[in-house]
Every structure is written in C-alpha cells, then in structure tokens.
Amino acid sequence: MLNIVFCGSPEFAALSLDYLIEHKCAISAVVTMPDRQQGRGRKLMFNAVKETALRHQLPVLQPEKATDPVFLNDLRSLKPDLILVVAYGKILRPQFLAIPRYGCVNLHASYLPYYRGASPIHQALLNGDTETGITTFLINEGMDSGDMILREKIVIADDETLGTLHDKLADAGAKLLLDTVQAFSNGMPRLYPQDHSKATYTQKILPEMAEIDWAQPAEAIRNRIRAFDPAPGARTSIQIRNQHRILKLFCPKVIQKETTAAPGTIVDVTPHGLIIACGKNCIIVSQVQLEGKKRMPAEEFIRGYPDAAGIRLN
C-alpha cells in the first residue's frame, strides 16, 4: 500500500482527505496551513483539513514556511511514496518536491491546460462557460504546468453558482484523486504532457471584482452574480430613504428586453423579482441582500420598499 502525505487547507481539500480515508488509503501525515486568529475574540481557528485530520487521529504538520529545514526533515522521515496536494496554499519548492518516491500530485479545479492559477472556478463562471473540469498532475516548478495523470470534464449548469460548482468539483475531484492514487499502485502511471500553447491563466480574486458594472451586457452581469454567490456576493449600491446602502444580488436571469432606462435602473418590480436595465438587455434577480440584513427573496424586499421601481443602482 502506498504511503501518502496529504497537503491541503480548505473545505474543498477536506472532502478529498475524507474520501481517501474512507477508501482505506494509508495517510501517514497531513500538512496544512498554520492556525489563524479569527473573529472578535481573535481565537485560533482550525481549518477544515486540520479538523478532518484530527477527527481521524492523523498527525498534523503546520509549518509557517514549506521550506523550513526542520519541517522538511520531518517530511523526509515519513518516507512518502506520494504527496497529494489539494488547495494547500503555499508554493512548493524543489527541495519539497523531491521528497516523495513518485513525486507530488496536485488536484486542480479545471480542465488543464485551461485556467491555471488560483481562481479557476470563479473564472469559468465569469466567462460563462458551459463546462469545466478537474485534473490531477505531477507538480513541477511551473504554475500548474506539470504532466497530467487524469482529467475529467464537468458540465456547468445554467443556474450554477460558485457554491454549487465548488461542491460539484470537490466531489468529483475526491473521486478522481482516489483513481489517481490507484493508478500508482503498480508504479509510475502513464503521464500526458500539457499543451502549453493552449494554456490560460486566472488571477487572484480581489474584493472589487464583485462590484457590478451596469454598463455591461446582461449576460456578463449574470455571470458575475453567479461567480460570487454565495460569498462575498456581487454588489451594487442603492439609495433608499436618503441613504446609500450596499445591495447584493443573487439568482439572476437574462431577459431579452431593450429599454430606454439608464443601465442600473430598476425598471419593474414583480412577484418574481427586480428587473434591472443593463448595458444590453435586462436581468431579473429573485434574491437580494440589503446591507445589514439577511439574504431574502426579492418579493420580501419589495414589500419593504414598494417604491423601488425607478431607482438607479450604481
């Protein structure tokens, strides 16, 4: 049986770790990000992978730097056959990559070579793609550029959001990672070089990327809303009762309707939602979240603000 070290941090990775343990993979240790202080009390919080590891009574390593000599010696002493990496959060240098017998394998949430980098799920939604994928590959010193082991395409539903696509890819990724481990059971499996000429790259997600530009076409705005649902939520601002407040929008649909109203204007309120003018066509949103309030059906918002029609969002 392969001796495996697992590296990861968020919920996306925790699902893979749980799945591997459930299927009797030999995990000798888990490497994850250091605990961080969170909340008003500044309490140390464990990430999802650490919580999973502790639940299964696995040793946990949390180096501040993945290049720390003491940490690397501890890792070498485990004599891993494979190191599996899923959203760990640190760049891995050659001295780390050289430790396992067969190398370090990464699970990436795209159909490589497309969407290399930190935000492949966001980018697929922002671009309005109808499919994406998951890939396992051997890590090299490049950015998600190593030789591939397994790939699988995943359909993006018309109403897919960041949350639902994240969960869909996490579930499919866990299964693909187990298949990848099994592919190493008889030694190094067949590897498939990436076509680097087709590579595309993602960027770090910044808070301002969730801001809605109403001059854009309705389809682009719809994609942005989906790409930031549930968090942080695509946002705009609204002036109601002489106050400027943040309004987050969810559950959008495009309406093929031209209007003379300025982009961002709420042109109608219906039992199904707010209809808002865009640079081209309109969108209807069926859920909203007003600053200081919980997410709610647009119908509930309209009951509180029945004169919303005609207000311009910006």
TrEMBL record:
Family: Belongs to the Fmt family.
TM regions (residue ranges): none
UniProt-listed PROSITE patterns: ANK_REP_REGION, ANK_REPEAT
Keyword terms, alphabetized: ANK repeat, Protein biosynthesis, Transferase
GO CC terms in record: cytosol
ANK repeats: from-to residues: 116-144
UniProt enzyme class: transferase
Domain (Formyl transferase C-terminal): residue spans on this chain: 204-305
GO molecular function terms attached to this record: methionyl-tRNA formyltransferase activity
Matching InterPro entries: Ankyrin_rpt (IPR002110), Fmt (IPR005794), Formyl_trans_C (IPR005793), Formyl_trans_C_sf (IPR037022), Formyl_transf_N (IPR002376), Formyl_transf_N_sf (IPR036477), Formyl_transferase-like_C_sf (IPR011034), Met-tRNA-FMT_C (IPR044135)
Catalytic activity, as annotated: L-methionyl-tRNA(fMet) + (6R)-10-formyltetrahydrofolate = N-formyl-L-methionyl-tRNA(fMet) + (6S)-5,6,7,8-tetrahydrofolate + H(+)
Domain Formyl transferase N-terminal span(s) in chain numbering: 4-180
Functional note: Attaches a formyl group to the free amino group of methionyl-tRNA(fMet). The formyl group appears to play a dual role in the initiator identity of N-formylmethionyl-tRNA by promoting its recognition by IF2 and preventing the misappropriation of this tRNA by the elongation apparatus.
Protein name: Methionyl-tRNA formyltransferase
Assigned EC number: 2.1.2.9
List of residues binding (6S)-5,6,7,8-tetrahydrofolate: 110-113
UniProt superkingdom: Bacteria
Record's keyword annotation contains Nucleotide-binding: no
